[in-house]
Design a protein that fits this description.
Elements lengths: L2 H25 L12 H20 L4 H30 L3 H6 L10 H27 L9
Helix pairs in contact: 1-2, 1-3, 2-3, 2-5, 3-5
């Protein structure tokens, strides 16, 4: 399986997990509970881990830098897709979601969509790099014979 396929497939899994999770929160009336938004990190960690594991297992690639690149690329692409999903959601479905964000402890008042996008991009990319480095500490010692 090609590296690009692994990256895109796992980025889509991350986005799908986050989107379904946020819609479930909305359906259950929990969109005002800011603390639950931290759980999207689990989808990111799962997707990065799955991408690195797939590259090791399917491509027999245990090189640290290439697997780190796959983890970071997967999550950065997922962050971009989540941002596009958020823009679509706020623009077409629920413009009032900005007010929900303003009322949470994570954000301040007077939010605009560009400010939200910028903040999510910075936070998402930073957490993606950190998560990729953390997961690579686990995967760096695996050798091909572990999957034979």
């Amino acid at each position: 399986m090609g590296i690009n396929q692994i990256i895109i497939k796992n980025a889509l899994k991350i986005v799908l997990g986050i989107v379904i999770y946020f819609f479930a929160m909305k359906l259950l009336g929990l969109e005002n509970v800011s603390e639950l938004r931290f759980l999207n990190f689990l989808f990111v960690a799962w997707g990065i881990n799955n991408a690195i594991k797939s590259n090791i297992k399917k491509n027999k690639d245990t090189f640290y830098i290439s697997n780190l690149f796959i983890g970071v690329s997967t999550s950065v692409i997922a962050v971009g897709m989540v941002i596009i999903s958020l823009i679509t959601y706020i623009s077409l479905i629920d413009p009032g979601f900005i007010t929900v964000l303003e009322n949470s402890f994570l954000w301040s008042s007077n939010l605009t969509l560009p400010l939200i996008v910028f903040a999510i991009a910075i936070e998402g990319i930073a957490s993606s790099v950190i998560c990729s480095f953390v997961l690579m500490q686990y995967w760096k010692n695996y050798k091909i014979e572990n999957y034979a």
